[in-house]
Design goal:
Number of strands: 3
Protein name: RING-type E3 ubiquitin transferase
Oligomer: single chain
GO molecular function, one term: ubiquitin protein ligase activity
CATH topology of the largest domain: Leucine-rich Repeat Variant
Keywords: Repeat, Transferase, Ubl conjugation pathway
CATH class of the largest domain: Mainly Alpha
Pathway: Protein modification; protein ubiquitination
Pfam families: Arm (PF00514), U-box (PF04564)
């Protein structure tokens, strides 16, 4: 008798084994739901788990359907129809910022893992918007029709898909080992780092219990001083924390676990440069939530981030700058950053042409704070900003420069002389009125208008 299920394979079929494991787990959960006397007694977690298991089964069925294409030796799937990541026929082709096409679930998984480059070209993505490639989709549909195949409907990527009891058992085992001997701690921390990088489902597991994150951090939280911490152990644990913070559902839990931010601050000050960079990246990722921005700012984390930026290690500076930018979106953190010396450090880096794009954006954001503006005037921001405007071809950098200059000159009348001399010598402001962005033109026009008035008043006097 023919088998009715496409994924019921023979002995040794790993997909069939996985299916049976998922079905047994689903049967157990459904039975628990069905025997509840009152629906109000049904555990929401059980319903969520049943949903995840069903999604995982659906995904396996679709994969088996797609793999059936490979059984037809006479039919070869054209390379342009295969996803560069999965090497399988694309169901939902989408275009990334570099113009490359991928199957949506696989590129979403790539992005969810924290990657911000194109997998094929390795170019940094200017944005992460995915645009449907209708032409390729229609071509794939026609090819399937011509060859007698039915293309399954696209399935959205879920970070929680495929969590099994075996995964949970392994997860619990690793957390148990991390509280054991030093060798076990190192082995467990290393594996958790790798698993949370490669498998989003392991990130989700940390969000299921409030005690798992303190357990993860226990080897470095119990040390009496930074000198007692094993550098490689600290690096693996902090990197695992970064991986966890990528998962949207974990951000609040991670940041609000009392020991997390203090340990990230300790990591910013000590450890390997990768540890420090990843600690900054974790703070950046966590600060995506406004509530976390306030929490991180109050904790005093801006000062070690600014110090890390000032130190100037290429691997860590960008992560530190990104975290500072995100945190300073809320007003109270701008004042904290200024008090912690951000203006001086940022101007020094910009003067040396280090991370100009990122740091100009931070400086423009800080320019709404009066103490920051006074600091910019004190640390000779005006000539530095004008020199960048003359050098750069980046419209956004010019816009940020003129916005900062606008705030400085309208707050400090002593700077009008420098503005006048720059305009006479280079015509920098007038050029921006002609060629700048709409915002840059408005700021430049306002400066010129005021400059003409100041010059006329001087001549009249």
């Amino acid at each position: 008798m023919a088998k009715s299920e496409v994924f019921e394979g023979g002995d040794g079929d790993p997909v069939a084994a996985k299916v049976m494991e998922l079905k047994r787990e689903l049967q157990r959960i459904v039975k628990a739901i069905m025997v509840a006397d009152d629906f109000d007694d049904v555990n929401l977690e059980a319903l969520d788990k049943a949903h995840r298991l069903l999604c995982a089964l659906k995904d396996l069925k679709i994969k088996r359907s797609l793999s059936s294409l490979k059984l037809h030796d006479s039919v070869a799937v054209p390379d342009e129809f295969r996803c560069p990541l999965s090497k399988e026929l694309m169901r939902d082709p989408v275009i990334v910022a570099t113009g490359q096409t991928y199957d949506r679930p696989f590129i979403e998984k790539w992005l969810k893992a924290g990657n911000r480059t194109c997998p094929q070209t390795q170019q940094v993505l200017s944005h992460t918007i995915l645009t449907a490639n209708q032409l390729i989709r229609e071509m794939i549909s026609q090819w399937c029709k011509n060859n007698g195949f039915q293309l399954p409907e696209p399935t959205p990527f879920s970070e929680d898909d495929g969590v099994t009891e075996a995964d949970r058992d392994h997860f619990i085992s690793l957390l148990s080992k991390i509280s054991s001997s030093l060798s076990d701690q190192k082995e467990s921390a290393r594996e958790l780092r790798l698993l949370t990088k490669r498998m989003p489902s392991f990130r989700a597991l940390f969000g299921e219990s409030v005690g798992t994150i303190p357990q993860l951090l226990s080897p470095i939280s119990k040390s009496k001083s930074p000198g007692d911490i094993q550098p490689d152990l600290q690096e693996d644990i902090i990197t695992t924390l970064l991986n966890l913070s990528i998962h949207d559902n974990n951000k609040k839990l991670v940041a609000e676990t009392p020991m997390v931010i203090p340990l990230l601050m300790d990591a910013l000050r000590s450890g390997t440069i990768e540890t420090r960079s990843n600690a900054a990246a974790a703070l950046f990722t966590l600060s995506a939530l406004d509530s976390n921005k306030a929490l991180i700012g109050k904790s005093g984390a801006l000062k070690p981030l600014i110090d890390l930026l000032d130190e100037g290690h290429p691997l860590a500076m960008k992560d530190a700058a990104s975290a500072i930018f995100n945190l300073c979106i809320i007003h109270e953190n701008k004042a904290r950053a200024v008090r912690d010396g951000a203006v001086k450090v940022i101007l020094k880096k910009i003067t040396n042409r280090v991370l100009v794009d990122e740091l100009l954006a931070i400086l423009a954001m800080l320019s709404s704070n009066q103490q920051a503006v006074e600091g910019m005037a004190e640390f000779e921001a005006v000539p530095c900003l004008f020199s960048i405007m003359r050098e750069t071809s980046c419209a956004r950098n010019k816009e940020n420069c003129i916005a900062i200059l606008y705030t400085i000159c309208f707050s400090d009348r002593t700077k009008w002389k420098e503005m006048s001399e720059e305009e006479k010598t280079h015509g920098t402001i007038s050029l921006l009125v002609q060629n700048g962005t709409s915002r840059a033109k408005r700021k430049a026009s306002a400066i010129l208008e005021r400059l003409h008035r100041v010059v006329n008043l001087t001549h009249t006097a």
